[in-house]
Amino acid sequence: MMRDLQSCTLCPRQCHANRLDGKTGYCGSALQTRMFRWGPHFGEEPPLSGTRGSGTLFFSHCTLRCIYCQNAKWSNGGRGDDLTLEELTQRFRTLAEKGCHNWNLVSPSPWLPQIAAATAPLLNEGIKLPFVYNTSGYERPETLAAYRHLIDIGLADLRYASAETAYQGSDARNYVDAARASIQWMWNQLGSLECDDDGIARRGLIVRLLALPNRTEEVMENLIWLRNTLGPGVAVSVMAQYNPVGQAAVTPTWNRRITPEEFEPIAELVGDLEFENGWIQPCEEETAECMLGDDMTAGYGEVR
């Protein structure tokens, strides 16, 4: 599958960059995999983190330009360590040896051919953890289908409901159509969240929705879309942790956190729509600071 890098169309931007020849497209990714952090992670939703942690691999570079990205030095700035395929394989192996519940691929779409090549030896040895496809939602269903074997659990953002907000926030006018199409594809392939007897996720879809200042109606629109399109069985993870860092800190209407008064109608709507599974992050001033560290789902309450 490395041939997919010869004229890269992995993400919806379809840059056609010849990454095998060292060229880069919009995301800045070339041939050699770059990663800025990896290890057991305990800040995901409870069925992913469990008791031994989610085996998280944070890849550098990104297909979006979110003005509020907390990892901008790596996602847009490109910092991180370049890895050979053998080194990448070893990181997957180490996470399995540590007893992590899954392999959590964060922003993997620019690196799917390398991930497939690096994990193939482990799969051939019978070393297999569930793959968590941890994505901004900005994906092509065609790419997801081609790398279906790397997706056991979908953990997909649905950030916007309007093209203009998606452009302002992430430089991606086509985000809404792309994200909804990819989420619907994941739902059709994976279905509702399935957990083992210990409550650890093995398969299924979780959709994350981040409340943005002055734009909370878009979360509500997306919740209604999810309920009408996928039904009440889809697990939703409603987040209040928005933090105006980077460019957002100096951008009007983006430069503040969410207030409890803004967030309350969202939480009420989740109940009104009768989702059967999921989590709601509390929006309280005393929890705001803890949301800025690694524990990005601190204080989640269950939907039901």
Describe this structure in words.
The protein has helices at 46-49, 72-75, 85-97, 112-125, 141-146, 163-170, 175-190, 216-229, 260-272, and strands at residues 33-41, 54-59, 81-83, 103-106, 131-135, 153-157, 194-195, 201-210, 235-239, 278-280, 301-302. It is an alpha/beta fold. The chain has a single domain, classed as Aldolase class I (TIM Barrel), CATH 3.20.20.70. Strand 5, helix 5 and strand 6 (153-157) form a beta-alpha-beta unit. Helix 3 (85-97) crosses helix 4 (112-125). The longest helix has 16 residues, at 175-190. The chain starts with 32 loop residues before the first strand and ends with a strand.
Oligomer: single chain
Pick out the low-confidence regions: 286-301
Q: Roughly what fraction of the amino acids lie in strands?
A: 15-25%
CATH architecture heading: Alpha-Beta Barrel
Q: Assign a percent range to the helix content.
A: 25-40%
Order of helices and strands: EHEHEHEHEHEHHEEHEHEE
Distance between the termini: 42 Å
- CATH C-level: Alpha Beta
The tally of structural domains comes to 1
> Mean pLDDT, nearest integer?
93
Q: What class do helices, strands and sheet pairing give?
A: alpha/beta
Number of E-type strands: 11
Please describe the biggest sheet, giving its number of strands, its sense, and whether it closes into a barrel: 11 strands, mixed
> What integer value in Å does the Rg equal?
18 Å
- How many alpha or pi helices? 9
- Shape verdict: globular
CATH superfamily: Aldolase class I
